[in-house]
Queue: 2 jobs
Job 1
Amino acid sequence: MFKDKRKNYWADFLAKFVPEWYNMINNMRIMKGAFMIIYLLSVADESDHDKILYVYHQFHTDMIKIAKSRLKAGNHPDYYHAAMDAVQAALYKITKYINRIDFNVSERELRTYVTTIVVNESVNLLYDNKRVEEITEVISDEDFLERIHIVERYQQVVSAIQALDDRYSSVMMCYYCEEKSVKYIAKMMGLPVKTIYTRLERGKQLLLQRLEEGDNAYV
Amino acid sequence: MSENEKQLFAKALREAMVEKRTTELEACTEDGSCTKAHLRKISNIIGANVTGDRIWIRPKYVLVAILISAALLLSGCSVYVMRHYSEIRDFFEEVFEKFARVTYDDNGELQENMGGISHIYELTYIPEEYKLIKSEMNSLYVHYTWQDNQENRITFEQRLFDGTNFSMDVEESEIFVVRQNDITIYSQASNTSYRYVWNNGKYAMSLISTMQLSEETLSKIIDGIVIKSA
């Protein structure tokens, strides 16, 4: 006869549990299949991840610089931290819609696209975007192209676009150059769809106005 | 014509914007410095370590690891219970904070006990000074009580296997496991009594004494428990 204290059931449990679990993993095909699926899913978006990393490493510094510059010029009270907020928002959107961004362009064009998104975020921080401008005249794309006479005065058009406010030029760039839908542009810029339509129309009006003023200057 | 002009306008737009941004960046006097907090947020947004810290794991991988670990733990626990169910079923001990409970449950396998106790046990050995003062028998349990001149008592109980449980207060005492031959006896000593609980494979049995029994006496009592002759 002997006496011992109450058995340590937890020690017995662990001693039996660990080998059981190991054998179960080796034998269960379902678990192996699950691991394979998880691995494939993680590998599937690796190309998108590479693109995101490329954008960050190539353009992050420029994004910070341009955001600080814009917000400082706009007299934002805390432009240093607001610039980082703008860059974070821009990178979030780029990451979210990475598969819709065309990487088959030059680095300069890609930089322009990325910095334009940052500029938009900076503008959103500076201005009240809830106020929707009323447009008095709607110009169709056919009328616009007819009136702009792009073939005859290409360089003038380029100069006029450069002088255009970023709020309008960035929307027009996404719509005409990237050929994105208005709904997509609204999501990317964080603006209502109506605002995008308004800015497209306003951009066309201002461009035509600037070109006509330029013509009148030579008269 | 319109399509050609549209493409030309798109080209002009692209060229203008590229020139505008390039000029702006070249003229920019701001630096690209940023805070550590900003880099941490960027790390989480893009799913890569840009903080320069050594330890950083992509949030997606952390979530996947947690889900897999939880699934493995749950499945492992269920496999263990299934494999050892018979052991757990026949003998189960719950340990709570202040008391222990010993439960015997045959889960209906002992057919001979279906209609109640079929074999009544009796003690053939009791210390000389003790006299039987009470005996009670029915289909559910058997009870004997002996008492000596100093009013010390020894009580023996035989019960059915099914769902019998003994609660032992361990707040101020401990439970000891005693083994005699092939029998596991749980013994508990408190200020007022000494309790011994065991089963013989067919019935749950307990012995309660108001004074401590020596090992020799306890051994003789348990060895002397036999089926009562008719």
Job 2
Amino acid sequence: MDNILNLSIEEMHNALKEKKIKPSDLVKASLEKAKGNQETYNAFVTILEEALELAYELDNNFEEDNPLYGIPYACKDNFSTKGILTTGSSNTLKNFIPVYDATVVKKLKDKKTVLIGKTVMDELAMGGTGTNGHTGICRNPWDKERYSGGSSGGSAVAVSAGIVPFALGSDTGDSVRKPASLCGLVGFKPSWGRISRYGLFSFATSIDHAAFFTRTVKDSAYVLEAIAGGDYNDATSNFSPVNNYSKDLNLDVKGLKIATIKELDSLVTNKDLLNAFDELKNKLEKDGAIVTSVEFGLDLLRTVLPVYLVISCSEATSNNASLDGIKFGPRKEGKTMEEEVFNTRTAYFSSSVKRRFVLGSYCLAKENQERVFIKAQKVRHLIVNKLHEIFKDYDVILTPASGKVASKFTDTSGDPLKDENLILENHMALGNLGGLPSLTLPICLSNGLPIGINVMGRPYEEQMVLNVSAAIESKFNFKNMIAKECK
Amino acid sequence: MKVTREQLKKLANRLMYDMSDEEYELLEKEFEVYEKEIELIENIDTEGVDPMTFPFFYESIGLREDEPCDVLTTEEVLKNAHDVFDNQVKVKKVI
């Protein structure tokens, strides 16, 4: 079989079932492609050659009712993997080898999925470009002169380049869903607590989500079935039953009420995206869905990014206080322990992360805490109330995941205080603040580069989000896209 | 109220690190934007609104039984430590 890595999970599973390929064929090809693309795209911190040994063991005893059996995958480098270097793309953890597996890693091991590498990220998940990892920048497989997005940049690259059919990521502000848009992928952030975060390095605990990339919506359903569920090692995880998401996929949108956000839609100027969005709305209405433009409130929408920044940077300062070189991680010399900690953190955190931590420290400082941090938490409450108000009358909210294609490294950034940045490019943090299931999938190509659309649902209505997303996917021709530079 | 270089340095030092002059200069520029973004938050009326600390309001799942599970060995705990002596993490003298 040609190009076995370009297959979806479902197609790989069928090919394995029909004995057209073996798991070792997939893993061998995946490892070769990972190494072949590494210099250009820099998706990986660690490529695991030993994965092939496991794959050979899996060549027999195929499990027909296990869609993930023998499938190669990649994992963002902030999930603990026992015995395997896990760095958070930070020099503070450049030699850290966990002694246990994250729950999701263990679940995928139990499903006989094969981990082929740990992927590059923005340091400690604090970034949105894919350029702030300690082993260098990720490049977009659609155009290597462009950003992959982040912080789950390496995982997005690995799936988009056709190295693996799925990869784990984490999403605190849009760190799976934005790179999904920029790299032409399905990026799914389920509800807060739907997937255990045990073993996932914390960035901002009240908005961190385990998430993942695939190239089709059905593949997302397969992955979610495998890794969702309550976990007594994660007190924030949810024990409600895990659906059979793939079998229950239903593309019938008749009678569904779909909201779009007026203030967001009015900011879109990209003609290809506008046309695709209009085409989508028409097709959904033709199929019996009711699509309505609703007002969110401009003043409140403008606070989504600032609220995210205040809460995330504040929580991050606490979560990363243990990165001091004392119990683990590299340690710089000093005359006293305090000096060693100071020198270690000065030397090993990147500039970008240090600057974000200062914002967090500012927000939490006694003189600012009420005015800034507590205030942001109150505004968060209003934002989430507004979302629930919309969800009283609507089943999902549909928004453009981004207003544009991936920017070039040489592009200058626009005014950060304009609505294009505040709202259009950063509204997906709504899904984090409200813990809502939220999925991005490609909707158009603009000058040959992908842009995605985002579907957001009520808490724990992953099936609804998957159903609507599958319906949208069926109306366009962007299913299972491999980036053009990597075909 | 514009934040000063001295305040930024104090905030960084409180978190047990320092930055270069160039980094502080960049951070000062970033704070000009942050302060305007914080104003956007401050302009929202939150009278009678409680802070939200988690995305959901739900009851605790409760505590599990107090039985040991998933226990790491001392060797495992110390595996990543920079300097180990006599089953303990070794640090500079503190007294």
